[in-house]
């Protein structure tokens, strides 16, 4: 029995004797089946020819990304807090070197994920640290391909994944019904940071962000969905926005960048 991993999106599946016929996360209009067809790998195979790049991004924030690039190039972020450390979003690969790097930073107490394209290998990460809780929004429960007792399906508009840490999960919606972002008030040297997935995407001109239903297939969000995202993050103070891929950072005036970008987007949509 193997936990097969979709090569295109990086999602790990429940143990089975043979690879699944299809990956439901890829075989859907927000993603795509790889151009070479549906292909699979396993964690053991990944560990043989890939490794994780561990990068200090700022004080208390470390990025993890896989080399050579795998799946859609996701990056996970480790946030250090006095109440314990939280992993924001997931990647498929975990190995002894990655575990050691996290232990050197104080270990891992919880995991929170923005949306299904970042579920990847979070169950393996949870088990590597004793079965720690994984916070996924209940509105996206149907997209969990590898159920686990440690998954916490939170509901509503906000959640506190690590009491005493100051971190807040915020349901933004948009890209998926349960898509969320994470507010880190201690980030950006105390000015606050927002960590996103795909509901708010840092673009090539890093003074701006964008909002899409599907990025690879260029399906836009409607104006009301974009307005809802802006309203969801409005109560929170932050100067910096960290996207889901390496180097995707709005370094200053992140909150203003989201507001301006939403105005520009809605105007272009004729709204």
Give unreliable regions as ranges. none
How many domains would you count in the coordinates? 1
The CATH architecture assignment turns out to be 4-Layer Sandwich
Beta-strand proportion: 15-25%
**Helicity, in percent?**
10-25%
Our measurement of the CA-to-CA distance between the termini, rounded to an integer number of angstroms, reads 51 Å
Using the alpha-carbon principal axes, give the shape: globular
- Class by alpha and beta content: alpha+beta
CATH superfamily: Ribonuclease Z/Hydroxyacylglutathione hydrolase-like
Largest sheet report: 7 strands, mixed
Output the radius of gyration.
18 Å
Q: Output the CATH class name.
A: Alpha Beta
Describe this entry's structure for a reader:
This protein has 271 residues and is α+β, with helices and mostly antiparallel strands. The chain has a single domain, classed as 4-Layer Sandwich (Metallo-beta-lactamase, Chain A), CATH 3.60.15. It is built from 6 helices and 19 strands. The protein has a 7-stranded mixed beta sheet with strand order 3-4-5-6-7-8-9. Strands 10-11-12-13-18-19 form a 6-stranded mixed beta sheet. The mean pLDDT is 97.
